[in-house]
Amino acid sequence: MTTLDTGPRTLMVGGVAATVIGEGAPVTVLAHGLGGSVSETRPLALRLRGTRVLLEFRGHGRSDALPGGWTYDLLADDLRAVADATGATRALGLSLGAGALLRVLAATPDRFERLAFVLPAAIDAARLDGATLRLRGLGEAVDRGDLDAAVAYLLHEVPEEVRDRRGVKLLLTRRAAQLLERPAPRPLVEDPEHADRPLHGRAVLRLVEAPALVVGQEGDPLHRLDVAAELAAALPGARLLSLPVGGVFWTAARQAQEALADHLTPTDTPADHPTPEESS
Question: Could you give the percent of the chain with pLDDT greater than 90?
Fold first, then answer.
């Protein structure tokens, strides 16, 4: 029997805000990327069954500030606290959130029954490339309050073939305006050798037995497909889903959503229809 979703509600766990959608088992916690919010993970949760818990790391969205900056340990603490408070048995990490999830697993490899990593940006090596510099440029635009520059940075990450679609620039302008509402989140340690890698070695991943889905996409300089492939190879129970350019949110969004639902919340029962709040 299909249970209709209850409306989204807000939960606060030790200064970490989370939006809770749906009810019942299983409970899946979703963690966003750097500078993101629930607006990033909401599309990924669209077809999941059960209860979806969309957290906002401290220093982001409605959560408490992190005046000194973030570390992977702090992000992992946020993710673990929300997962424990809600009884989550499945977890999805997007970009920086994937790194936070890796840090949780380094300490507790058996914490979750099922895992999903979407667009992982790093595993155990520092990032010192042009994509990282563009991300820093976005942060500088946010700190200046330069909406146009922030929109331009975000638009650069959208595939050329969809940039002119109706509503794309409006959506990115809305996201840029949200980013400008508070200082851009930055790592506590400015040295990328220490700040930009979730793990200090991959051996710990051999202890993670939970089935994992790693989602990557072609032509993404910030979230390189080879990093996703390496993560899938390092996790004993993982498989890689490779999507075309811009696939996760733009060109193959439905495929990504269905793959995540089939992996994280597999069942013979059709997924509930999304509520109006989920679709917005």
Answer: 63
Please tell me the distance from the alpha carbon of residue 263 to that of residue 253, in angstroms, as a whole number: 15
Token match 């509402």: residue? 181
What φ, ψ does residue 206 adopt, rounded to 5°?
-65, -20
Dump pLDDT digits (tens) for 162-204.
Answer: 888 888 889 899 888 988 888 888 888 655 555 568 999 999 9
* Cα 147 to Cα 47: distance, rounded to the nearest angstrom: 32
Q: Tell me, what amino acid is at 140?
A: E
Cα 119 to chain centroid, rounded: 8
Which CA distances in Å does 178 have to 38, 124, 221, 278?
11, 30, 24, 18
Threshold 0.85, pTM exceeds: yes
Domains defined for the chain, CATH in brackets: 9-125+186-279 (3.40.50.1820)
| Type of residue at 22 | G
